[in-house]
Specification:
- The complex is a heterodimer of chains A (419) and B (257).
- In chain A, helix 1 packs across helix 12 and helix 2 packs across helix 12.
- In chain A, a hairpin with a 5-residue loop joins strand 6 and strand 7.
- With 419 residues, chain A is of the alpha+beta class.
- Chain A has 15 helices and twelve strands.
- Chain A folds into two domains: 199 residues, no CATH class; 202 residues, no CATH class.
- By secondary structure, chain B is mainly beta.
- The two termini of chain B are 22 Å apart.
- Chain B contains five helices and 13 strands.
- Chain B has a domain of 179 residues: Clam (outer membrane lipoprotein receptor (LolB), chain A).
- Classes of the chains: A alpha+beta (419), B mainly beta (257).
Chain lengths: 419, 257
C-alpha cells in the first residue's frame, strides 16, 4: 500500500462537498474544544481548591505527634510530653528541596470576650514571621497588623470581630484551660482582623504569638502541636512527607508526617473523582459526534456509489474502496483537529491568563474546606489534549467503518446499470 | 472549666438541699414517684452557704480547689474560689438564666454565652448539661422501683428512671440507689442514649450540717477514663442564711473577700 493513491484520493475528496466537510469538521472541532476546555476548567477549579485548601491556613504537609490526631489533645505535643527541639526540626525540614516554608503552631480552645459580648473560639499560636511565608490568610489583613512575639496581641477573624463588635486597639479578655488544669485568663490587645472567606474560620479562629499562647496555657517553649509545611507542588506532598518522615529524628514520641490528602481525604477523593470523570466526558462527547460523522460519511458514500462501482469494475479490491473512505474520514479528522486547535488554544491562553471573574454572579464558595473564587480559569493539560486528539481521530475512523464497508460491497454491474 | 455557675447552682442544690430528705411516712407499698418527688421538692427553695473542696484527678493533672458557695432557691447562686491562691477570688454568678464569671487576674467580668453550656466544669468530670438543666426528675423521667431489699446488709431501694417522650434530658437512663432508713442516696448511674454506662456518682460520709443530714462526699467517676475522678467534699454548710436576690449581684461577684 506504500505509494497507494488512496490517502491522496481521500484527502482530495474533502473538497468535493466543501460545505459538508466544513460542517462535519466544525462539529468535531467543537467536540474537541468542549472536551479540552471543560476538562481544563474543571482542573482549574480542582487546582484552585487544592491550592486554597492547602495554602490558605493549612499546610500541604503537617507534622504532629503520632497520638495527636484525631483527638487533638492539648498534651500530645510533638516529641510527647517532654517536648522537642523545634528549631532543630524546622532546620531539617527546610533543608528539603521541595519545602518552601515551615512553621510551628500551638492550638487551644477557650472564650474571647469584649464588654458584654463573649464567644467561644480557637486560639492558634503562630510564629508570625514564619507563618506569613507558609499561609495566605495573614497576607492581607482586613485591618491592622500582625501580632508581635512576646506581646499579648491577638488577631481575630472578620466574623468574630463583628460578633464581638470590636475594632483594632480594643481590649479582649481571653479565657482558657491551662495544661495544669488551672483557669487561664489574660487581657489581649486586638491588633488586626483577618479574613479567610471560610465562615467557620472567620467566626472561631484567633491568632496570637506562639510564645504568648504557650505561657497562657502553661506549656514550655519546646512544646508545639504541629509543624505545617508548604511544598513547591501540592500534588507532590506525599513524596515530600515520606522523605521528611525519614529525615526527622525519632526519639521521644514518634512523629506523624501527613500530606494534605490524608488530612482532607474528602478533597483528595474529589480530585480523584474529577480525574476519573474526564475519560467519561470524552467518551460522551465523541460518542455523540460519532453518529454525526457516520451520517455524513454514509451520505457521501451513497452519493458516490457509481464512482465506487467504477473502481470495483476496473479491478480495484473492496479493500481499496475501504481505504479511500477511511482515508477521507481520517483527513476530515486531521482537518477538524486543526480547526479545533485554532478554536481552542487561543481561548485557553486567554482563560488561563486572564480568566473572567464570576464572583459577581456567585460570590465566594467554600467546599471541602477550600475557598473557591469563582473564575473561569482553565488549566493547560497537554497529555489530555493529546488524548482528546487521538480520540477524535479514532472517532472519525470508527464512524467511517460502516460506510466504508457498504461502499466496498457496492455491486458494480447493478449500480452502473442504474438499478 | 468555664461555665461553672450552672454547675455551682445545681451543685448547691444537690449537695445542700437535694438530699436533705426527711424520712416521711411512706405507708404500705413503696411509691417510687413519691420518694423521688420528695427529693425533687427539696431541690428548690431555701438559701444556704457552704464551703467545699473539689479534687479533680485526670490523666494529665490533679488539682484541688476550695470554694465558698451561696445559693437561693435554684435561680441564684454564687461560687467563689478561695484556693489555690493563684485563682483565689475567681467567681461565678448565676442569676436566673444568666451566668457571669469574674476573673480577678484581669479584673474583668465576662458573661458566658448560652452556646457555651457544653463541656466540663472547671476541668472536672461534671458536664454542664446535667448541672445547668433544671430538670425536675419526676417531670422528665418515668420512675420505676427496680429493687427493694438488702444490699450489703443495708435496706435500699433501687430506682430506674427513663426519660419521658419529648423530655429535654441528656441521659438515656438513670439508676438510683437510696437507703431506706434515712433516704440517703448511695449512688447514681448515668447511662447514655445507647444504654451504655457512662459514669457513676457515689455518695458517702453522711453528716449532719446545721441539723440536716447530707452526703458530705460526692464522687464522680467516668467509665471511659478509669483512674480519673472528681470528688467534692463539704466542710461547712448552713441553711436559711437570710440572703435575698440582691446578694446575687455583679457587684458582689467582684467582691474579692
Amino acid at each position: 500500500m506504500r505509494n497507494a493513491p488512496w490517502p491522496r484520493l481521500g484527502w482530495r475528496n474533502l473538497e468535493r462537498h466543501r460545505k459538508r466537510t466544513i460542517l462535519t469538521a466544525l462539529g468535531l472541532a467543537v467536540a474537541f474544544f468542549a472536551c479540552v476546555f471543560i476538562v481544563g476548567w474543571s482542573q482549574g477549579i480542582m487546582n484552585e481548591m487544592v491550592e486554597s485548601a492547602t495554602s490558605l491556613v493549612n499546610g500541604q504537609v503537617e507534622i504532629h505527634d503520632a497520638e495527636y490526631l484525631p483527638d487533638r489533645s492539648m498534651y500530645d505535643t510533638i516529641g510527647g510530653r517532654g517536648g522537642a527541639d523545634i528549631e532543630g526540626l524546622l532546620e531539617i525540614i527546610e533543608q528539603d528541596v521541595t519545602v518552601v516554608a515551615a512553621a510551628p503552631r500551638l492550638y487551644a480552645g477557650g472564650l474571647i470576650s469584649s464588654g458584654d459580648a463573649t464567644t467561644a473560639g480557637m486560639f492558634m499560636g503562630v510564629d508570625p514571621v514564619r507563618e506569613v511565608r507558609l499561609t495566605r490568610f495573614l497576607d492581607e489583613l482586613v485591618e491592622g497588623r500582625l501580632p508581635v512575639s512576646g506581646q499579648n496581641e491577638i488577631l481575630v477573624g472578620e466574623e468574630m470581630a463583628r460578633q464581638l463588635a470590636v475594632a483594632v486597639d480594643d481590649e479582649l479578655v481571653i479565657v482558657g484551660s491551662g495544661a495544669d488544669g488551672s483557669m487561664a485568663n489574660d487581657l489581649f490587645t486586638l491588633v488586626g482582623v483577618f479574613r479567610t472567606g471560610l465562615p467557620d474560620l472567620d467566626a472561631t479562629f484567633t491568632v496570637m504569638p506562639i510564645d504568648v499562647l504557650q505561657s497562657f496555657v502553661v506549656l514550655p517553649a519546646n512544646r508545639v502541636h504541629e509543624i505545617a509545611v508548604a511544598t513547591v507542588d501540592p500534588f507532590g506532598a506525599p513524596t515530600t512527607a515520606t522523605r521528611l518522615a525519614g529525615a526527622l529524628p525519632g526519639g521521644g514520641s514518634p512523629l506523624e508526617v501527613v500530606p494534605w490528602m490524608e488530612l482532607n481525604p474528602a478533597l483528595a477523593e474529589y480530585v480523584a473523582l474529577g480525574d476519573s470523570v474526564y475519560g467519561i466526558i470524552v467518551a460522551f462527547v465523541f460518542g455523540i459526534a460519532m453518529f454525526g460523522v457516520a451520517n455524513s460519511m454514509l451520505m457521501a458514500t451513497y452519493e458516490r456509489r457509481r464512482e465506487f462501482a467504477v473502481m470495483l469494475a476496473l479491478g480495484a479490491t473492496p479493500r481499496s474502496v475501504w481505504a479511500v473512505v477511511l482515508s477521507e474520514a481520517f483527513a476530515i479528522g486531521l482537518f477538524s483537529l486543526a480547526l479545533g486547535a485554532v478554536l481552542t488554544f487561543p481561548l485557553m491562553v486567554w482563560f488561563h491568563n486572564a480568566p473572567p471573574d464570576m464572583s459577581w454572579l456567585y460570590g465566594d464558595l467554600s467546599l471541602n474546606g477550600a475557598l473557591l473564587r469563582p473564575s473561569l480559569r482553565v488549566e493547560y493539560n497537554l497529555p489530555f489534549a493529546g488524548l482528546t486528539a487521538v480520540s477524535l481521530l479514532v472517532t472519525v475512523v470508527l464512524a467511517a467503518l460502516y460506510p466504508a464497508m457498504r461502499a466496498g460491497r457496492t455491486p458494480p454491474a447493478d449500480t452502473l446499470s442504474g438499478l | 472549666m468555664i461555665e461553672w455557675s450552672g454547675m455551682a447552682n445545681r451543685l448547691i442544690a444537690v449537695l445542700v438541699l437535694g438530699y436533705v430528705v426527711m424520712p416521711s411516712p411512706v405507708v404500705g407499698q413503696t411509691d417510687p414517684v413519691a420518694i423521688m418527688e420528695q427529693v425533687d421538692r427539696l431541690l428548690r427553695g431555701d438559701s444556704s452557704r457552704g464551703v467545699a473542696t473539689m479534687e479533680v484527678v485526670t490523666e494529665n493533672w490533679e488539682r484541688r480547689i476550695t470554694m465558698e458557695l451561696w445559693s437561693l432557691g435554684t435561680e441564684y447562686s454564687l461560687v467563689r474560689l478561695r484556693a489555690p491562691q493563684r485563682e483565689a477570688g475567681t467567681a461565678t454568678l448565676m442569676a436566673e438564666d444568666d451566668i457571669w464569671n469574674y476573673l480577678p487576674k484581669v479584673d474583668r467580668t465576662i458573661k458566658i454565652p448560652s452556646s457555651m453550656m457544653g463541656g466540663s466544669w472547671m476541668g472536672s468530670h461534671f458536664t454542664n448539661d446535667d448541672l445547668v438543666k433544671e430538670s425536675q426528675i419526676t417531670e422528665d423521667y418515668v420512675v420505676e422501683l427496680a429493687f427493694e431489699g438488702d444490699r450489703d446488709n443495708v435496706a435500699v431501694w433501687e430506682f430506674v428512671l427513663t426519660p419521658k417522650p419529648d423530655a429535654p434530658v441528656f441521659w438515656g437512663r438513670l439508676e438510683y440507689q437510696v437507703r431506706q432508713d434515712d433516704y440517703m442516696p448511695i449512688w447514681t448511674r448515668f447511662y447514655d442514649e445507647d444504654g451504655e454506662l457512662s459514669r457513676t456518682m457515689t455518695y458517702s460520709e453522711f453528716e449532719e450540717f446545721d441539723g440536716r443530714l447530707i452526703p458530705a462526699l460526692m464522687e464522680m467517676q467516668p467509665i471511659d477514663k478509669p483512674g480519673e475522678k472528681t470528688a467534692i467534699r463539704y466542710q461547712e454548710l448552713e441553711f436559711d442564711i437570710g440572703v435575698d436576690e440582691n446578694f446575687f449581684s455583679l457587684r458582689n461577684l467582684q467582691d474579692r473577700r
